[in-house]
Write a structure and sequence with these properties.
Layout: E1 17-19, E2 28-31, E3 37-39, H1 44-53
Antiparallel strand pairs: 1-2, 2-3
Length: about 60
């Protein structure tokens, strides 16, 4: 039985990305939603995921 008032856990932002093969100077992730290449460091994947979750429908 589920408790009332509980929400589903927030999904992991990395679930929308595919890891590109090694060999570049920086590790890049490919967004499965829009195809953008996103650096894997400095919080960039989270920022990109937040952009998709924005209320403007991005």
């Amino acid at each position: 039985m589920s408790e009332s008032g509980t929400t589903a856990p927030e999904p992991d932002e990395l679930e929308i990305f595919d890891v590109l093969p090694e060999g570049s100077a920086t590790s890049l992730l490919a967004c499965r939603v829009c195809g953008a290449l996103v650096p894997s460091e400095r919080g960039c994947p989270r920022v990109h995921w937040d952009w998709h979750e924005a209320t403007n429908g991005a």
